[in-house]
C-alpha cells in the first residue's frame, strides 16, 4: 500500500517515541523521526526498515532543548516538502533531587524541551491543520501531570503544564476537524531514569510499564480522537488517587517513591 500520510515524532530514537514510530510505520505512514542524536536516529530507522521492509522514514537530528530548535525543524520539514498530518510531541527528559540542589541550566533546558518546544511545534503545525481542517496531535504528558512530585519538582510541573495547555486547546479546536490527544503514561521502562539520575530509586526498581503497551494504547487513542489516554491499570490508579487524596498526601507518597533502594 502506498504511503499517503506523514507523522512527525519527536523523541523518536528510543522508548515510547520509538514504539509510537513502530505503530505508524506498521500502518503505512511515512514517519519523520526527530531526536537530538543523529546516530541514534539512524539506528532506529534501520531497525524499522528491518522489521517493516516497506517502511519509509526521514531522519532529522535536531536539539529541541535549544530555543531555535523548533524553527530549525519546521524549516527543514518545509524544505523537504512534507506535510505533517500527525504531530507527536514525545521529546522530554527529567531530573531528580531537591530543587535547592539541582542544576539550574539542566532544568531550564528541560523547560525549553518539555514545554517551550512542545508549545512552539504545536503552534506551527496546529495552524496548518486547522487551515486544512484535518490533522492529529499527540501530546505526551505523564501521570505526574495530576500531582506534585517532590524531588522531580520541575519535571512534574512541565507535565502539569502539558495537561492544562492540551485541555484548553482541545476545547478551542472543537469542530475544526483536528483532534488533540493527551497520553499520560505511568513510570515506564525507558532510558528516562538514567537521564534523570534515578536508576537506584524505589520507583525505577518497581513495576515499570512496557513502552510498547503505552505506545499501542496511545496510538489507538490518537486514531480514535480520544481526549485523554491512561494506558495501563497503573496509570488509571494514579489518576484515581489524584482525585481521592489531598495534594499534601500525594506529595508525601510520591516523595517516598524517590527514595534510593540500597
Automatic annotation (TrEMBL):
GO terms for cellular component: membrane. GO terms for molecular function: oxidoreductase activity. Keywords: Oxidoreductase. Gene3D superfamilies: NAD(P)-binding Rossmann-like Domain. PROSITE patterns: ADH_SHORT (PS00061). Belongs to the short-chain dehydrogenases/reductases (SDR) family. This is Short-chain dehydrogenase. It comes from Pontibacter arcticus.
